[in-house]
Automatic annotation (TrEMBL), chain A:
Membrane-spanning ranges: 175-194, 206-227, 239-261, 267-285, 420-441, 447-473, 749-768
InterPro entries: ATPase-cat-bd, ATPase_P-typ_cyto_dom_N, ATPase_P-typ_P_site, ATPase_P-typ_TM_dom_sf, ATPase_P-typ_transduc_dom_A_sf, ATPase_P-type_domA, HAD-like_sf, HAD_sf
Protein name, UniProt field: Copper-translocating P-type ATPase
Species of provenance: Nitrospirillum viridazoti CBAmc
Main localisation: membrane
Family label: Belongs to the cation transport ATPase (P-type) (TC 3.A.3) family. Type IB subfamily.
Residue span, Putative metal-binding domain: 9-56
Membrane topology: Multi-pass membrane protein
Keyword Ribosomal protein belongs to the record: no
Location in the cell: Cell membrane
Automatic annotation (TrEMBL), chain B:
Annotated source species: Nitrospirillum amazonense
InterPro entries according to UniProt: Cyt_oxidase_maturation_cbb3 (IPR004714)
Name of the protein this chain belongs to: Cbb3-type cytochrome oxidase maturation protein
Pfam families: FixS
Length: 802, 54
């Protein structure tokens, strides 16, 4: 790290210092200083060398007083029969190899009783195993939180392994088995084909029997996922792609065994295992891509289940899970803590970050009697709440339920591959039946020969390439998107994205950064701004931060008092200086002669003795590439709309800035849904991009939805696609990839259809030897896969796609 | 053709060994965290890391 960055950036978290810290040493806050000391004392300073330059350590939040939510941890510990304890913790802020090393080393360093500590970067989960009592969990968790990471019990279910992960592991084992079998059976088959003339019958039968020995267990084990899915579909009276796959594999294997037993010339074991291998490759990649998105969602939900502290009848606080808080109970909320229940403020004055619930970025001032909701974050001062609803009864839980209902409605979308399979399966089976009848009655063949030919029709039409056509493209597309930080959460998202013709943006936090910035004011004197910034640097309020950012680094005033719900007060050499709301600074509503309400954004007032009050205006700037992305989308023929809950003036101004012509402002959540429904009724396919909880229902009401990773958890859960980074380029990229993927899927389907049109007559005529079948099958599969890979190979949006 | 009698078992044995090793690795959890493993290899405990050149 260069020397100058040491002096201007926090030594622990690397955030730029906002003046305040220079006097306390090179740290931005007490928490970071504490974490640095802890790391230094453990002798783990190498962490600072090891972490990547762009990754900063998590900034440590000051938890303030109040009960410790970690006290609930021992309940989540699983005790094995041999007395060892196991705990899985979800760790927030884990993002590089150095974090893994730091956490593992910190926990094991002075704790010989810890048998193993293993952090997982993919699932952001820490698995701890130790001998002793479950109560020690608190100690370990406190160590990790002391380093600046937030922890919560993983998945709520204690040590229970994730069933989806176990399923994925089973899939990988099957894939390995199928790969092994395919390679070895192919080896034997190639020798049969190449020695077809010289080889004696006995040798060939021996090779067939060896193949059977490998292929039969493989089909029995590796084919299970397909057989189970096919059975489930048939029981429900439907067909899916797994039905022709299962029929094909079983018939191929069965017929090959019969042929081998009769010393026949042709056995199709290679075809059966190769088919399974190719299909399992597609399934495994698909499952991995979606597993990652799923683990991200589970991680977010786990961190929101933090226990709350309730004041018991004996006057002592006790820690309870949010769902078990009694109605009317008194809940203590420390500064910096997330509120876990709905309730009214009984005691205390504070500012709440209500963005999760209302979508509003500016803090909400609360006083006794104010109604607050679960999910809000208490910022400035401790509060006592009287709980009015908890657990499933909260507004937050209600919204999540509404979302789930909307999600289910959307799950009716039928995958293209399944629609093709519905048409394909009966055609294939009828063709095989017709072949059999034709050979028996028209060709006067012996019945078992006719049966053989009919089965070979089924084998050659076995939808290997067809079954790969869609997943291969989806894997390539989701892999490519994931490399750019775009997670596809829903399996059908890509297909639903392709026909989109209308893109609707939310304003705050989506088109804009959702962060206020000071509006430049030419009449503002430098020393005035500097004095205001000295006060502002002492506060974490978003407007104060914006003011401090605009003024640049500098000293901080000593002894600034933060009045919750009001502002900042400081006794300077020239008397009191106040920075805060209009009322706090004692400015009457009509003062300043300034009625320019059209400009109204968030504002701060600044008052000094003997000077007229001064107003600072703030605005929410658009994301840096918002205008470029909107222009690109319009050029690509999309209709772009802005749908905002904000006032018309603000929405119009932003729309003009980024180039959106169609604006709807003043829309409440229900109106947003109605507007989207109206658009869909016009026959449009709508993509909604939004980030607030107030958008969540609208996201679920659109055909497809995108949300930035900075969005609140519930919204991310509702969205089909989540993108990272602070640019909007992901929107255009996702749409481009989806359209490209649709084109490739169509090419693949057309190709497999063509292949079948060529291969089926050969099979009907009775010329389909195992060699022909294997060559045709692998040839078509490889062609389909290669075609799909074209999606991942090209550079993003280099113009080569259009 | 007698050579087949031991060549085929030998080939299957070798392939089977590879398969067993892979299955062991899966069971051992080595495929659980591909991102983490990719960076873990860079860190050797108890030996100081050379300073990063930026």
């Amino acid at each position: 790290m260069p020397l100058d960055s040491l002096t201007t950036h926090c030594r622990h978290c690397g955030q730029p210092l906002l003046g305040a810290a220079t006097e306390r040493g090179a740290f931005c806050c007490q928490g970071c200083a504490g974490a640095y000391t802890l790391i230094h004392d453990l002798g783990l300073d190498a962490y600072y060398d090891r972490r990547p330059a762009e990754a900063a350590a998590p900034a440590v939040a000051d938890d303030g007083d109040g009960a410790d939510p970690l006290l609930g941890l021992p309940d989540a510990v699983a005790v094995a029969p041999d007395g060892s304890c196991l705990l899985r913790l979800s760790v927030d802020g884990l993002h590089c190899g150095a974090c893994l090393w730091l956490i593992e080393a910190a926990v094991t360093k002075h704790h010989p009783e810890v048998q193993s500590a293993r952090a997982n970067l993919t699932t952001r989960c820490l698995t701890l195993r130790w001998t002793g009592t479950p109560a020690q969990a608190v100690e370990y968790a406190r160590l990790v939180t002391g380093l600046g990471y937030r922890v919560a019990p993983f998945g709520g279910a204690g040590a229970g392994a994730d069933p989806a992960a176990a399923q994925e592991r089973a899939l990988l084992r099957r894939l390995a088995l199928a790969g092994f079998a395919a390679a070895n059976v192919m080896l034997l088959s190639v020798s049969v084909w190449s020695g077809a003339d010289a080889m004696g019958d006995a040798t060939r039968t021996l090779l067939h029997w060896v193949s059977a020995l490998i292929a039969l267990p493989t089909v029995a084990i590796a084919g299970q996922p397909f057989f189970q899915s096919a059975l489930a579909a048939l029981r429900a009276g439907r067909t899916n792609m797994d039905v022709p796959i299962s029929v094909g594999v079983l018939l191929t294997t069965g017929m090959s065994v019969v042929m081998t037993a009769q010393h026949g010339e042709h056995a199709y074991f290679d075809g059966a295992v190769m088919l399974l291998f190719f299909l399992l490759v597609g399934r495994y990649l698909d499952s991995r891509a979606r597993g990652r998105a799923r683990s991200a969602a589970a991680h977010l939900l786990a961190l929101n289940q933090a226990p709350v502290s309730v004041l018991g009848a004996d006057g002592l606080p006790q820690v309870l899970p949010p769902a078990r808080v009694p109605l009317g109970g008194t809940v203590l909320v420390a500064a910096g803590e997330r509120i876990g229940v709905d309730g009214t403020v009984a005691e205390g004055v504070s500012d709440l970050d209500a963005s999760l619930v209302t979508g509003e970025t500016l803090p909400l001032a609360v006083a006794p009697g104010t109604q607050v909701f679960a999910g809000m974050i208490n910022r400035t001062a401790p509060l006592r709440l009287t709980a009015t609803a908890s657990g499933e009864g909260t507004l937050l839980a209600e919204m999540v339920r509404l979302l789930e209902a909307a999600e289910q409605g959307r799950a009716r979308h039928v995958l293209l591959a399944d629609r093709v399979a519905r048409a394909y399966t009966p055609v294939v089976h009828l063709t095989a039946l017709a072949t059999f009848l034709a050979w028996v009655f028209l060709g006067h063949a012996v019945w078992y020969q006719a049966l053989l030919i009919a089965v070979s029709v089924l084998i050659i039409t076995c939808p290997c390439a067809l079954a790969l056509a869609v997943p291969a493209v989806q894997v390539a597309a989701s892999g490519r998107l994931m490399r750019q930080g775009i997670l596809l959460k829903s399996a059908t998202a890509l297909e639903r994205l392709a026909p989109i013709d209308t893109v609707v943006f939310d304003k705050t936090g989506t088109l804009t950064l959702g962060r206020p910035d000071l509006v430049a004011d030419p009449t503002l004197a430098v020393e005035e701004l500097e004095l205001a910034a000295r006060l502002a640097r002492a506060s974490r309020h978003p407007l104060s931060r914006a003011l401090a950012r605009a003024a640049g680094p500098g000293p901080v005033a000593e002894g600034v008092v933060e009045v919750p719900g009001g502002g900042l007060r400081w006794l300077g050499p020239q008397g009191f200086v106040r920075l805060g709301s209009r009322a706090f600074c004692g400015v009457p509503d009509f003062a300043n002669g300034d009625t320019d309400e059209g400009r109204a954004g968030p504002e701060l007032w600044f008052s000094r003795c003997g000077q007229p009050p001064r107003r600072f205006l703030f605005t929410d700037r658009p994301r840096r590439d918002a205008a470029a992305v909107v222009a690109e989308l319009k050029a690509a023929g999309y209709r772009v709309e802005l749908l905002s809950g904000d006032r018309a003036v603000t929405a119009q101004a932003l729309a003009a800035e980024v180039g959106i012509d169609i604006v709807r402002a003043d829309a409440r959540p229900a109106e947003k849904c109605a507007h989207l429904a109206a658009l869909r009724a016009e026959g449009r396919k709508v993509l909604m991009v939004g980030d607030g909880l107030n958008d969540a229902a609208a996201l679920a009401a659109a055909d497809v939805s995108l949300s930035p990773a900075s969005a609140v958890d519930v919204t991310q859960t509702a969205a089909d696609v989540v993108f990272q980074g602070d640019g909007l380029a992901a929107v255009a990229e996702t749409l481009a990839v989806a359209r490209r993927a649709r084109a490739l899927v169509r090419q693949n389907l057309a190709f497999t259809l063509l292949y079948n049109l060529c291969a089926v007559p050969v099979a009907i005529a009775g010329f389909a030897t195992p060699f022909v079948a294997a060559a045709a099958m692998s040839g078509s599969s490889l062609a389909v896969m290669a075609n799909a890979l074209r999606l991942g190979s090209k550079k993003p949006r280099d113009g080569g796609y259009r | 053709m007698n050579s087949l009698l031991f060549l085929i078992p030998a080939a299957l044995l070798l392939g089977g060994l590879g398969l067993c090793a892979f299955l062991w690795a899966v069971r051992d959890g080595q495929f659980e965290d591909l991102d983490g493993s990719a960076t873990r290899i860079l860190y050797e405990d108890e030996t100081p890391l050379p300073k990063r050149h930026t």
